[in-house]
Every structure is written in structure tokens, then in C-alpha cells.
Predict the 3D structure of the following.
Amino acid sequence: MWYRICKKLHFKCSDFNSSTHLTVCAECIYVFLSIDELVQWSQLNRLNVNINKTKEMVLGPLGKELVVPPTVSSTVVERVPVYKILGVIVSSDLKWDDHVAAITSKAGKRLWFMKQLRKAGVIQDDLMYYYQSVVRPVLEYACPCWHLSLTKEQTKQLEDVQRRALQIIFGNIQYDEVRRTHNIPTLAERRLDLCRTFFQRIIRDRSNVLWYLLPARRDSELTARLRCARQYPTIYARTNRYKNSLIAYGLNYWQ
């Protein structure tokens, strides 16, 4: 279950996949009350909060300040700078170096097995099928969360995995030539397309769990008089981090 209150502190009880955003500013008592409510809810539903698996992560500028750590059952919750949640490695500085390093390493191990398949005489079509079904999904998992915030260097690290895979399959042929000949898009192009599709599913379905993140729609009487009217207002962001988040980027470019 997810509870969304604000964006300043992320608290997760991993034993039953519960996550909540808690306000910390000048109302620290509110944090402790919210945690107590979470613990009481778990007890009423016959769930135990495993304090050894419960971590706290402080996000953004608040991490530079002295924040009173929360407690569960009189035990202080451990504060961590990096945490893996649902397969995505999140850092307290909201950068993706750790996640990119982890998925490129994982994909690299699968490339080793693909080399063994090639040595065993597996044909190119089957090697390509192995890459598309076993290796590439690792590099695209949950990409709407992180793709739009990647740096050029991180994008290159991910693309190098596909470059190595195609070299294993087709031999020492130029990467761009192989892609052009076999109509293979870059990983960046695929991830952008996946992000666009994911965002469009959000704005088309009111029952989508992320619908609440969208701003209010523009007045239909106003948009009816416009030639190319957008359903939602454009987002003006002060920071690149917010500008490149999925919702803000999608509202500005994919309506």
C-alpha cells in the first residue's frame, strides 16, 4: 500500500510492501504519529514490522539538516543513502549511478552466457531472440522512473551493453551499420518510447493509480476554441530534475 503526504521523507516497511511519504519540516511529531499509525495498522491486520528490514531515506536538501530519526517499537530506524525498492536502486541524492551500474553488471553476466551459446553453434536469429528476451529487459525495467534523468555518460554505459551484444551476434561489424541493416533501435530510443507509452496510458485512464499526479484539466470551453489545444496545462519547472520527471516531461512534450 502507498500513502502520499508530501515529498520530503521516504519511509518504507519492506516486510509488507508499505511505503509512505511523511512531512518532516517543523512538525517532527507528525512523523512519529504517522509511523505509529502504520505500526498499529499492521498489528490490526496481523502483520509484524521487521525492524531489521525497515529503513529510512531522507531525500533532497533535507538530508543536509539534522533530522530526528524515527523509531519503531522503541528501536531507531536505520538511515540509508541507497536502497533497492521493487528492483530499482534509489539514492538519497536522486541520481542513478548506482542503478545503472547494477543493471549493466547484471546484463553483462547474461552476455557471457550468450557467448557460450555462440560457441556452441547457436544461429544468429536465436541469439538475437535470447538478447531481446533475456538481456535487454534488464536494461529497460522500470525505465519510466529513471530514463529521463539519465546523464549522457549513463546513457552511453547502457548503450555499450547492446553494442557488445550485437558484436557477439553479428561479429566485428560497425554498430550503426548493424542497427541500420537489421532495423534495431538504440536502447535510448526504446526507453523513450516506453516512457511515452506509459505516460499516455496514465492520461487516458482515470482509474490509473498515477492519475492523481496530473494537474486539473483545462477548461473544455476554452480548449474547444483552440486549434491545437492541450488537455492539461504546460508545466513550468524551476529545476531540471523536476522538468525531466515523467509527469512534467510528458505534459510538456507528449500531449
In short: The chain has ten helices and nine strands. Residues 214-253 form one domain. The longest strand covers residues 9-13. The first helix runs from residue 28 to 44.
